[in-house]
Amino acid sequence: MKRNTLVTTTSALALAIALGGFGSAVAEDKAPESAQAAGVADIVRAPTDLPPAIDRTEPETVKVELETIEKVGQLDDGTTYRYWTFNGQVPGPMVRVRVGDTVEVSMKNDENSWMPHNVDFHAVTGPHGGGAATMADPGKDSNGFSFKALKPGLYVYHCAVPSVAHHISNGMYGMILVEPEGGLPEVDREFYVMQGELYTEEPFGTKGELMESYEKLSAEQPEYYVFNGAAEALTGEKALKAEVGESIRIFFGVGGPNKTSSFHVIGEIFDTVYSNASLTSEPLMDVQTISVPPGGASVVDLELEVPGTYVLVDHALSRAERGLAGHLVVEGPENPEIFQEHEAKEPTS
Fold first, then answer.
1. Rounded distance, CA 175 to CA 243, Å?
2. For labeling, which of 64, 89, 159, 194 is most exposed (least CB within 10 Å)?
3. What is the spatial order of strands in the sheet that 153-158 belongs to?
4. Chain mean pLDDT for the chain
Protein backbone atom coordinates (compact mmCIF):
# COMPACT_ATOMS: atom_id res chain seq x y z
CA MET A 1 0.00 0.00 0.00
CA LYS A 2 1.50 3.36 -0.95
CA ARG A 3 1.04 5.79 1.93
CA ASN A 4 1.62 9.34 0.76
CA THR A 5 -0.19 10.79 3.77
CA LEU A 6 -1.95 9.65 6.88
CA VAL A 7 -5.25 10.81 5.40
CA THR A 8 -5.12 8.44 2.44
CA THR A 9 -4.43 5.46 4.68
CA THR A 10 -7.03 6.12 7.34
CA SER A 11 -9.75 7.14 4.93
CA ALA A 12 -9.31 3.96 2.88
CA LEU A 13 -9.49 1.79 5.98
CA ALA A 14 -12.48 3.65 7.40
CA LEU A 15 -14.35 3.42 4.11
CA ALA A 16 -13.58 -0.28 3.80
CA ILE A 17 -14.87 -0.95 7.32
CA ALA A 18 -18.04 1.03 6.64
CA LEU A 19 -18.72 -0.91 3.44
CA GLY A 20 -18.12 -4.25 5.10
CA GLY A 21 -15.23 -5.00 2.75
CA PHE A 22 -12.39 -4.13 5.08
CA GLY A 23 -10.38 -7.27 4.48
CA SER A 24 -10.63 -7.41 0.70
CA ALA A 25 -10.09 -3.68 0.31
CA VAL A 26 -6.83 -3.81 2.20
CA ALA A 27 -5.74 -6.99 0.43
CA GLU A 28 -6.18 -5.48 -3.03
CA ASP A 29 -4.30 -2.31 -2.10
CA LYS A 30 -1.39 -3.96 -0.30
CA ALA A 31 2.06 -3.56 -1.82
CA PRO A 32 3.76 -6.69 -3.17
CA GLU A 33 6.32 -8.47 -1.03
CA SER A 34 9.08 -7.13 -3.30
CA ALA A 35 8.44 -3.72 -1.73
CA GLN A 36 10.69 -4.75 1.19
CA ALA A 37 13.35 -2.04 1.23
CA ALA A 38 16.82 -3.15 0.16
CA GLY A 39 19.10 -3.69 3.14
CA VAL A 40 16.26 -3.38 5.65
CA ALA A 41 15.43 -6.40 7.78
CA ASP A 42 12.07 -8.14 7.72
CA ILE A 43 11.49 -8.43 11.46
CA VAL A 44 7.96 -9.89 11.21
CA ARG A 45 7.69 -13.40 12.58
CA ALA A 46 5.37 -15.47 10.39
CA PRO A 47 2.27 -16.65 12.27
CA THR A 48 3.07 -20.22 11.21
CA ASP A 49 6.52 -20.09 12.85
CA LEU A 50 5.84 -22.13 15.97
CA PRO A 51 6.76 -25.61 17.25
CA PRO A 52 4.38 -28.56 16.68
CA ALA A 53 2.27 -30.10 19.42
CA ILE A 54 4.20 -32.27 21.88
CA ASP A 55 3.53 -35.99 21.45
CA ARG A 56 5.57 -37.34 24.38
CA THR A 57 4.11 -38.23 27.76
CA GLU A 58 7.15 -37.97 30.02
CA PRO A 59 8.92 -34.79 31.21
CA GLU A 60 12.19 -33.83 29.56
CA THR A 61 14.80 -31.10 29.74
CA VAL A 62 14.21 -28.46 27.06
CA LYS A 63 16.96 -26.02 26.09
CA VAL A 64 15.93 -22.48 25.09
CA GLU A 65 18.61 -20.36 23.41
CA LEU A 66 17.89 -16.67 22.98
CA GLU A 67 19.96 -13.90 21.43
CA THR A 68 19.02 -10.25 21.79
CA ILE A 69 19.59 -8.45 18.50
CA GLU A 70 19.00 -4.79 17.71
CA LYS A 71 18.38 -4.13 14.02
CA VAL A 72 16.72 -1.68 11.67
CA GLY A 73 13.56 -3.29 10.32
CA GLN A 74 10.68 -2.35 8.09
CA LEU A 75 7.80 -0.92 10.11
CA ASP A 76 5.68 0.17 7.15
CA ASP A 77 6.06 0.91 3.46
CA GLY A 78 8.94 3.39 3.27
CA THR A 79 9.22 3.47 7.06
CA THR A 80 11.86 1.81 9.23
CA TYR A 81 12.59 1.57 12.94
CA ARG A 82 15.45 0.25 15.11
CA TYR A 83 13.86 -2.77 16.76
CA TRP A 84 15.19 -4.63 19.79
CA THR A 85 14.42 -8.31 19.33
CA PHE A 86 14.77 -11.83 20.61
CA ASN A 87 16.42 -13.87 17.83
CA GLY A 88 15.93 -11.18 15.21
CA GLN A 89 12.14 -11.09 14.89
CA VAL A 90 9.01 -9.81 16.61
CA PRO A 91 7.66 -11.51 18.56
CA GLY A 92 10.51 -13.66 19.86
CA PRO A 93 10.40 -17.40 19.13
CA MET A 94 7.48 -19.31 20.57
CA VAL A 95 8.70 -21.85 23.10
CA ARG A 96 6.69 -25.04 23.63
CA VAL A 97 7.13 -27.36 26.59
CA ARG A 98 5.08 -29.79 28.64
CA VAL A 99 4.04 -29.36 32.27
CA GLY A 100 6.73 -31.00 34.39
CA ASP A 101 9.54 -30.24 31.93
CA THR A 102 12.77 -28.64 33.09
CA VAL A 103 13.58 -25.62 30.93
CA GLU A 104 17.20 -24.47 30.57
CA VAL A 105 17.43 -20.86 29.38
CA SER A 106 20.60 -19.35 27.95
CA MET A 107 20.84 -15.86 26.49
CA LYS A 108 23.50 -13.75 24.84
CA ASN A 109 23.45 -10.12 23.80
CA ASP A 110 24.71 -9.38 20.30
CA GLU A 111 27.94 -7.38 20.17
CA ASN A 112 26.29 -4.70 18.03
CA SER A 113 23.61 -3.93 20.62
CA TRP A 114 23.48 -0.51 22.19
CA MET A 115 21.76 -1.66 25.40
CA PRO A 116 21.96 -4.40 28.05
CA HIS A 117 19.10 -6.92 27.84
CA ASN A 118 17.61 -9.85 29.74
CA VAL A 119 14.46 -12.00 29.73
CA ASP A 120 11.66 -12.44 32.27
CA PHE A 121 9.42 -15.51 31.74
CA HIS A 122 5.95 -15.29 33.25
CA ALA A 123 5.94 -19.12 33.33
CA VAL A 124 8.76 -19.12 35.92
CA THR A 125 8.30 -19.66 39.64
CA GLY A 126 11.42 -17.90 40.90
CA PRO A 127 12.99 -14.45 41.44
CA HIS A 128 12.46 -11.94 38.62
CA GLY A 129 11.23 -14.70 36.29
CA GLY A 130 14.88 -15.29 35.44
CA GLY A 131 15.53 -11.63 34.67
CA ALA A 132 18.52 -11.19 37.00
CA ALA A 133 20.13 -14.45 35.85
CA THR A 134 19.93 -13.48 32.17
CA MET A 135 21.21 -9.89 32.37
CA ALA A 136 23.83 -9.38 29.64
CA ASP A 137 25.75 -6.38 28.32
CA PRO A 138 26.40 -6.02 24.58
CA GLY A 139 28.66 -8.81 23.35
CA LYS A 140 28.25 -10.87 26.53
CA ASP A 141 26.58 -14.16 27.47
CA SER A 142 24.26 -14.29 30.46
CA ASN A 143 24.61 -16.77 33.31
CA GLY A 144 21.31 -18.37 32.35
CA PHE A 145 19.04 -20.42 34.60
CA SER A 146 16.79 -23.48 34.79
CA PHE A 147 13.19 -23.70 35.92
CA LYS A 148 10.51 -26.33 36.33
CA ALA A 149 7.36 -25.74 34.27
CA LEU A 150 4.85 -26.20 37.07
CA LYS A 151 1.67 -24.66 35.69
CA PRO A 152 0.07 -25.28 32.29
CA GLY A 153 -0.78 -22.16 30.31
CA LEU A 154 0.30 -19.75 27.61
CA TYR A 155 2.69 -17.21 29.12
CA VAL A 156 4.37 -14.03 27.93
CA TYR A 157 8.10 -13.46 28.23
CA HIS A 158 9.79 -10.07 27.78
CA CYS A 159 12.91 -8.03 28.45
CA ALA A 160 12.84 -6.54 31.95
CA VAL A 161 15.74 -4.08 31.89
CA PRO A 162 14.65 -0.60 33.08
CA SER A 163 12.90 1.15 31.57
CA VAL A 164 11.01 -2.10 31.05
CA ALA A 165 8.28 -0.45 28.96
CA HIS A 166 10.98 0.96 26.68
CA HIS A 167 12.50 -2.45 25.95
CA ILE A 168 9.12 -4.12 25.44
CA SER A 169 7.78 -1.42 23.12
CA ASN A 170 10.82 -1.83 20.88
CA GLY A 171 9.85 -5.47 20.25
CA MET A 172 11.23 -7.54 23.12
CA TYR A 173 8.38 -9.95 23.88
CA GLY A 174 7.29 -13.48 23.01
CA MET A 175 5.39 -16.44 24.47
CA ILE A 176 5.97 -19.86 25.99
CA LEU A 177 3.28 -22.54 25.89
CA VAL A 178 3.27 -25.03 28.76
CA GLU A 179 1.03 -27.84 27.55
CA PRO A 180 -1.09 -29.66 30.13
CA GLU A 181 -0.77 -33.41 30.60
CA GLY A 182 -2.45 -34.98 27.60
CA GLY A 183 -1.95 -31.82 25.54
CA LEU A 184 -4.63 -29.67 23.93
CA PRO A 185 -7.41 -30.93 21.64
CA GLU A 186 -6.06 -31.49 18.14
CA VAL A 187 -6.69 -28.89 15.43
CA ASP A 188 -5.71 -28.72 11.77
CA ARG A 189 -3.59 -25.55 11.98
CA GLU A 190 -2.05 -23.37 14.68
CA PHE A 191 -0.95 -19.73 14.52
CA TYR A 192 1.18 -17.43 16.68
CA VAL A 193 0.05 -13.79 16.94
CA MET A 194 1.11 -11.01 19.32
CA GLN A 195 0.00 -7.41 19.58
CA GLY A 196 2.28 -4.51 20.47
CA GLU A 197 2.69 -0.73 20.36
CA LEU A 198 5.43 1.55 19.03
CA TYR A 199 5.97 5.08 20.25
CA THR A 200 7.69 7.28 17.67
CA GLU A 201 8.66 10.94 17.66
CA GLU A 202 7.29 11.25 14.14
CA PRO A 203 3.56 10.98 13.33
CA PHE A 204 2.08 7.77 11.92
CA GLY A 205 2.81 7.46 8.20
CA THR A 206 6.09 9.40 8.22
CA LYS A 207 8.71 8.03 5.81
CA GLY A 208 12.29 7.16 6.67
CA GLU A 209 13.78 5.79 9.90
CA LEU A 210 11.65 6.81 12.89
CA MET A 211 12.94 7.58 16.36
CA GLU A 212 11.48 6.34 19.64
CA SER A 213 9.65 8.83 21.86
CA TYR A 214 10.07 8.49 25.63
CA GLU A 215 7.50 11.24 26.15
CA LYS A 216 4.78 9.41 24.20
CA LEU A 217 5.74 6.14 25.88
CA SER A 218 5.30 7.68 29.33
CA ALA A 219 1.98 9.20 28.25
CA GLU A 220 0.84 5.88 26.72
CA GLN A 221 0.21 7.51 23.33
CA PRO A 222 1.50 5.12 20.63
CA GLU A 223 1.78 6.13 16.99
CA TYR A 224 1.64 2.52 15.76
CA TYR A 225 -0.28 -0.57 16.85
CA VAL A 226 1.07 -3.80 15.37
CA PHE A 227 0.52 -7.52 15.03
CA ASN A 228 3.87 -9.38 14.93
CA GLY A 229 5.93 -6.23 14.88
CA ALA A 230 4.92 -4.12 11.88
CA ALA A 231 2.00 -2.27 10.33
CA GLU A 232 -0.40 -4.67 8.56
CA ALA A 233 2.29 -7.34 8.92
CA LEU A 234 -0.09 -10.31 8.81
CA THR A 235 -1.39 -9.61 5.31
CA GLY A 236 -0.18 -10.73 1.89
CA GLU A 237 2.33 -13.57 2.09
CA LYS A 238 2.26 -13.57 5.90
CA ALA A 239 -1.51 -13.74 6.25
CA LEU A 240 -2.96 -16.67 8.19
CA LYS A 241 -4.13 -19.23 5.60
CA ALA A 242 -6.49 -22.18 5.94
CA GLU A 243 -9.14 -24.22 4.13
CA VAL A 244 -12.90 -24.52 4.50
CA GLY A 245 -13.71 -27.37 6.86
CA GLU A 246 -10.52 -26.98 8.90
CA SER A 247 -10.18 -26.13 12.55
CA ILE A 248 -7.58 -23.58 13.59
CA ARG A 249 -6.08 -22.37 16.86
CA ILE A 250 -4.63 -18.92 17.47
CA PHE A 251 -2.18 -18.46 20.32
CA PHE A 252 -2.73 -14.76 20.98
CA GLY A 253 -0.75 -12.56 23.34
CA VAL A 254 -0.20 -8.89 24.09
CA GLY A 255 3.34 -7.66 24.54
CA GLY A 256 2.08 -4.15 25.01
CA PRO A 257 3.59 -2.58 27.00
CA ASN A 258 0.49 -0.58 27.89
CA LYS A 259 -2.72 -1.29 25.99
CA THR A 260 -5.32 -4.01 26.50
CA SER A 261 -6.54 -5.71 23.31
CA SER A 262 -10.15 -6.50 22.42
CA PHE A 263 -9.19 -9.23 19.97
CA HIS A 264 -11.81 -10.00 17.31
CA VAL A 265 -11.96 -11.70 13.91
CA ILE A 266 -14.43 -9.91 11.63
CA GLY A 267 -16.92 -12.44 10.24
CA GLU A 268 -16.08 -15.27 12.65
CA ILE A 269 -16.99 -16.44 16.16
CA PHE A 270 -14.53 -18.12 18.49
CA ASP A 271 -15.89 -21.61 19.07
CA THR A 272 -13.66 -22.21 22.10
CA VAL A 273 -11.80 -19.68 24.23
CA TYR A 274 -9.24 -20.52 26.88
CA SER A 275 -9.71 -17.24 28.73
CA ASN A 276 -6.56 -15.67 30.17
CA ALA A 277 -4.76 -18.68 28.65
CA SER A 278 -5.92 -20.91 31.51
CA LEU A 279 -5.68 -24.37 29.98
CA THR A 280 -7.01 -26.23 33.01
CA SER A 281 -10.22 -24.19 33.49
CA GLU A 282 -13.43 -24.94 31.62
CA PRO A 283 -13.17 -23.06 28.30
CA LEU A 284 -15.74 -20.53 27.15
CA MET A 285 -17.84 -21.35 24.09
CA ASP A 286 -19.14 -19.14 21.26
CA VAL A 287 -17.41 -15.83 22.01
CA GLN A 288 -17.29 -12.77 19.73
CA THR A 289 -14.46 -10.70 21.26
CA ILE A 290 -11.92 -11.39 23.99
CA SER A 291 -10.11 -9.01 26.31
CA VAL A 292 -6.36 -9.62 26.71
CA PRO A 293 -4.28 -7.34 28.96
CA PRO A 294 -0.66 -6.36 28.33
CA GLY A 295 1.52 -9.20 29.51
CA GLY A 296 -1.42 -11.58 29.07
CA ALA A 297 -2.57 -14.18 26.56
CA SER A 298 -5.48 -16.25 25.38
CA VAL A 299 -6.04 -19.29 23.15
CA VAL A 300 -8.93 -19.40 20.67
CA ASP A 301 -10.19 -22.19 18.41
CA LEU A 302 -12.33 -21.68 15.29
CA GLU A 303 -14.07 -23.98 12.81
CA LEU A 304 -14.01 -22.54 9.28
CA GLU A 305 -17.21 -23.00 7.28
CA VAL A 306 -17.16 -20.23 4.66
CA PRO A 307 -14.36 -19.09 2.32
CA GLY A 308 -13.17 -15.50 2.26
CA THR A 309 -10.78 -13.01 3.80
CA TYR A 310 -11.41 -12.48 7.49
CA VAL A 311 -9.78 -9.56 9.29
CA LEU A 312 -8.00 -9.79 12.63
CA VAL A 313 -8.48 -6.59 14.63
CA ASP A 314 -8.47 -5.08 18.05
CA HIS A 315 -12.09 -3.93 18.36
CA ALA A 316 -10.82 -0.60 19.61
CA LEU A 317 -11.09 0.00 15.88
CA SER A 318 -9.26 3.30 15.64
CA ARG A 319 -6.16 1.17 16.07
CA ALA A 320 -6.79 -0.45 12.69
CA GLU A 321 -6.05 2.95 11.19
CA ARG A 322 -2.62 2.84 12.86
CA GLY A 323 -1.48 -0.46 11.40
CA LEU A 324 -3.33 -3.04 13.50
CA ALA A 325 -4.95 -5.37 10.98
CA GLY A 326 -4.24 -8.90 9.82
CA HIS A 327 -5.88 -11.37 7.43
CA LEU A 328 -7.13 -14.91 7.77
CA VAL A 329 -7.53 -16.14 4.19
CA VAL A 330 -9.83 -19.16 3.92
CA GLU A 331 -10.05 -20.99 0.59
CA GLY A 332 -12.50 -23.67 -0.52
CA PRO A 333 -16.04 -24.23 -1.80
CA GLU A 334 -18.82 -21.76 -1.11
CA ASN A 335 -21.32 -22.68 1.59
CA PRO A 336 -24.60 -20.90 0.69
CA GLU A 337 -26.50 -22.65 3.49
CA ILE A 338 -24.45 -20.66 5.98
CA PHE A 339 -23.64 -17.48 4.04
CA GLN A 340 -24.75 -16.18 0.65
CA GLU A 341 -24.55 -12.70 -0.84
CA HIS A 342 -27.70 -11.69 -2.68
CA GLU A 343 -27.53 -10.44 -6.24
CA ALA A 344 -28.35 -6.79 -6.78
CA LYS A 345 -32.00 -6.25 -7.64
CA GLU A 346 -33.03 -4.32 -10.73
CA PRO A 347 -34.69 -1.01 -9.81
CA THR A 348 -38.45 -0.96 -10.25
CA SER A 349 -40.10 1.80 -12.27
1. 26
2. 64
3. 95-98, 173-179, 153-158, 120-121
4. 91
Q: Full-prediction pTM beyond 0.85?
A: yes
Is the separation of the CB atoms in 225 and 195 below 8 Å?
yes
What is the rounded CA–CA span in Å between residue 102 and residue 109? 23
**Single-letter code of the amino acid located at 313:** V
State which CATH number among 3.40.630.10, 2.60.40.420, 2.40.160.10, 2.60.40.2250 fits the domain covering 6-39+187-201+223-331: 2.60.40.420
Side chain identity, residue 276: N
Instruction: Please state the domain extents for the chain.
Output: 6-39+187-201+223-331, 61-179
Show Cβ contacts of residue 343 under 8 Å, excluding neighbours closer than 6 positions.
none
Average pLDDT over residues 1-27: 37
User: Mind listing the pLDDT tens digit for each residue in 49-60?
Assistant: 999 999 999 999
Mean pLDDT of the 39-53 span: 95
- The tens digit of pLDDT for each residue in 222-253 reads 999 999 999 999 999 999 999 999 999 999 99
What whole-number distance in Å separates Cα of residue 152 and Cα of residue 144? 22
